[in-house]
Amino acid sequence: MNDISRRSVLLAALGAAGAGALAACASGSGSAPTLVSPSGPAVTAAEKKRAGRGTVRNMNLTAAPAVLDLGGGLTAESWAFSGQTPGGEIRVSAGDTLAAELSNQLPDRTTTSLHWHGIALRNDMDGAPPVTQPAVQAGSTFTYRFITGTPGTYFVHPHIGVQLDRGLYAPLIVEDPDEPLSYDDEWVVVLDDWIDGVTGTPDEVYAELRQGMGAGMHRDGLMPMGATSDLLGGDAGDVKYPYHLVNGRIPAAPVVHRGRPGDRVRLRIINAGGDTAYRVALGGHRMTVTHTDGYPVEHREVDALLIGMGERYDVLVTLGDGVFPLVSLAEGKGAAGMALVRTGAGSAPSPSVRPKELDGKIVTAAQLRATDDVRLTSKKPDRVHRVELTGGMHHYNWAINGVRLDMSDPAAHPLIVEAGERVQLDFVNRSTMWHPMHLHGHTYELGADGPRKDTAIVLPKKTLSVVFDADNPGQWMLHCHNAYHAEAGMMAVLGYRD
Ligand SMILES: [Cu+2]
Which residues cross the membrane (predicted)? Predict the structure, then answer.
């Protein structure tokens, strides 16, 4: 079958019978082996093994156009869940069954999905069309139903195009019924880089980027050369955002967290940005890092964190007396977002404040260690995949192992694993830019005893090795969490052999 007719067959199969049909069709395409079907018996069996508590938590998320109030009189026409960004916090207990109905009210026949970022859930609820399900059509609904597993800090966002860079995201907190940490209060902090409805849409930004640097990146929306960061090993990002938000607000009209002096607060910090790593500090405070990407780490005191797109960090702080800025510096880009903590009298700091902690002790994931209870047993890997991160700005041809993912046939070049294997992925960054590499459905371990994570920064020209146990059968996306790099093709399918 030639490429074009094979594609039409695949698309027809998708439309007719969904992801199962796609898997069956892809398996007949010659060199590619047969993969576990996202809705097949192996996936059902894995879900049965999950320790569900029987409690079902029903909720609705409506993806629709919204005029968002970003504060200070600034509004932006965008797309959001239930009219606000971030969308309303989703909070469940580990073992609850989450039943979330997505209603797609987006304009212009835009399809969408919900991806439960970081959750090791059943494959057919992972929300990554066309691999795990057909895209949810405009005007229709789809109910995601799955048992939530490991407690921690997660978020939900669409997995289509560059929709992540709209206002379509919401925090997802899975509480531990036997929470070992003690604290007085919690504060969920969602960071985002904002352009939609201000100087252009994310789709317009992507169209410009796709022309490559050769065509000249003249538009205001694009990052001129010179966004560099030592922490990120050079080039910091592709897009110049007019605003950086903390919990949906600009620094001139910040969200305020109120507490009492001496309160011990757990901050759950989520980077929902499209193209920005943030350096985060709370003025006048040190932070104790307790978790990253939902999993506990040996506690470390830091002044500031570096958090790439898709990463999450939990920290504990003991609040001082007064008013303090929580600043999210757009790493290498100069601008920043801000929120405030208020425990007493005092005037708010200037929106352009840069607390000295931003230049203090910064701990990155590479320096953290998993706690004993979540560290993987040491074991020789059964399989090693070399995952080269390739491409560049000139042709905007971001890829994995030189192959840009073709969404009309995503499983054409899968990275194969088998259930029960210990798998090692060697991320070899051959490009001159950093990439936050995200694996769906699993939480890998960095190096021999590093933190458990699902998204990790791979610096330019460096190699990062991660290991995981292949214990969640299906077809899982492995990709850069830069929304524009992923859309350009820096994405692959990691598939379990059937
Ligand atoms: Cu990337």
Answer: none
DSSP H stretches of helix in 324-430: none
Coil/strand/helix, residue 68? strand
Condensed to tens digits (0 to 9), the pLDDT of residues 443-489 reads: 999 998 899 999 999 999 999 999 999 999 999 999 999 999 999 99
| Residue 31, pLDDT score | 60
Q: How far apart are the first and last CA of the chain?
A: 24
Residue with tokens 């949906």: 248
Give the CA count within 13 Å in the CB-facing half-sphere of 290: 19
Phi, psi of 414, rounded to the nearest 5 degrees: -75, 155
CA-to-CA separations, 95 to 47, 59, 119, in angstroms, rounded? 11, 16, 12
> Cα separation of 312 and 117, whole Å?
10
CA of 389 to the centre of ligand 1 (A): 8
The three-class DSSP label of residue 16 is helix
Q: Is 139 exposed, middle or buried (0-12, 13-18, 19+ CB in 10 A)?
A: exposed
3-state class (DSSP) for residue 395: coil
418: helix, strand or coil: coil
* Distance from C-alpha of 357 to C-alpha of 353, rounded to nearest angstrom: 11
pLDDT digits (tens, 9 = 90+) for 419-435: 999 999 999 999 999 99
> Does residue 309 contact residue 481 with C-beta atoms inside 8 Å?
yes
Measure the CA–CA gap between 229 and 357, rounded to whole angstroms.
17
Instruction: Using CA atoms of 351, 355, 361, 367 in order, give the dihedral in degrees to the nearest 10.
Output: -20
User: What is the DSSP-derived secondary structure letter of residue 124?
Assistant: G
Task: Pull the structure tokens for residue 165.
Answer: 């860079």
Q: In this predicted structure, which of 1-15, 85-99, 127-141, 232-246 has the lowest mean pLDDT? A: 1-15
pLDDT digits (tens, 9 = 90+) for 372-413: 999 999 999 999 999 999 999 999 999 999 999 999 999 999
pLDDT tops 90 at residue 220: no
Distance 485 CA to ligand 1 centre (A): 5
Distance 395 CA to ligand 1 centre (A): 14
Mean pLDDT for the stretch of residues 340-366: 96
**What spacing in Å lies between the alpha carbon of 347 and ligand 1's midpoint?**
40
Helices of type H across 141-264: 202-210
pLDDT tens, position by position, 150-173 = 999 999 999 999 999 999 999 999
Domains defined for the chain, CATH in brackets: 3-175 (2.60.40.420), 185-363 (2.60.40.420), 373-496 (2.60.40.420)
Distance 31 CA to ligand 1 centre (A): 28
> 41: CA distance to ligand 1 center in Å?
34
Please, are residues 433 and 393 in contact by the beta-carbon 8 Å criterion? Answer: yes
DSSP state of 344: S
